[in-house]
Amino acid sequence: MKLVLFDCDGTLVDSVRLIHEVMARTFVDFGYKRPDVASTKSIIGLTLDIAIARMQGKPHVDDEAIAMTAHYKSIFPGVRDEGDMQTPLFDGIRPLIETLAARDELLIGAVTGKSRRGLTHILEANGFTPYFVVSRTADDCPSKPHPAMVTECCSETGMDPHDTIVIGDAVYDMQMAKAAGATAIGVAWGYASVEELLAAGADTIAHHPNDLLSHIL
């Protein structure tokens, strides 16, 4: 048996346009300049309050970051519903998940800096809910790269971290996996570079979702 834990943003779905637009509007609404896309990409994967504080160059989450986090969450659904703000699956993800879900020796889960509501929306919108048997979100655990998301998924499913694979596009995913004692697979189609993922501890890199099959099965 293996437990396969997927990150969401930048791994399953291409959500940078939506995340960046909500983040940019939040910053403007609080009197700041619009951040650039590179700044937003650099924090995707972190819990939102920590991400906002980091984009502001703050060492810790303060009252303003908390207020900005609440504002971000309040405007997110409205921005998401705008016609050009979709979060499509990356090419090859649907057949990958369906192939993995058909294998009795595999359990599939999600570990994400999204909210529980956000993850539920993604899984339901893509018909993935029956396939994901376990998940941890920003509402459940400390922010990545803390290992709790992985270790709690392992505990819930009765799996050992050594039999667990974490798949993600961010350095925080790789760091989280290694801190938990799991295998870390970086994906090249997301928001961090291959060099950054390897430096963060990735055991290997997948350049297309099909590549993951040889590392998992």
What's the arrangement of secondary structure elements?
Elements: E1 2-6, H1 16-29, H2 37-43, H3 48-55, H4 63-80, H5 93-101, E2 106-111, H6 116-125, E3 132-136, H7 148-157, E4 164-168, H8 171-180, E5 183-187, H9 194-199, E6 204-206, H10 209-216
Parallel strand pairs: 1-2, 1-4, 2-3, 4-5, 5-6
Helix pairs in contact: 1-4, 3-4
Please provide a written account of the structure.
- InterPro entries: HAD-like_hydrolase_sf (IPR050155), HAD-like_sf (IPR036412), HAD-SF_hydro_IA (IPR006439), HAD_2 (IPR041492), HAD_sf (IPR023214), PGP-like_dom2 (IPR023198).
- It comes from Rhizobium mayense.
- This is HAD-IA family hydrolase.
- One of its GO terms (molecular function) is hydrolase activity.
- This protein is an alpha/beta fold.
- The chain is 46% helix and 13% strand.
- It has 10 helices and 6 strands; from the N terminus they run E-H-H-H-H-H-E-H-E-H-E-H-E-H-E-H.
- Strands 3-2-1-4-5-6 form a 6-stranded parallel beta sheet, sandwiched between helices.
- Strand 4, helix 8 and strand 5 form a beta-alpha-beta unit.
- Helix 1 packs across helix 4 (63-80) and helix 3 packs across helix 4.
- The longest helix is centred in the first third of the chain and has 18 residues, at 63-80.
- The protein is globular, with a radius of gyration of 17 Å.
- The model has no long low-confidence stretch (mean pLDDT 97).
Can you give keywords for this protein?
about 220 residues, alpha/beta, six-stranded parallel sheet, 10 helices
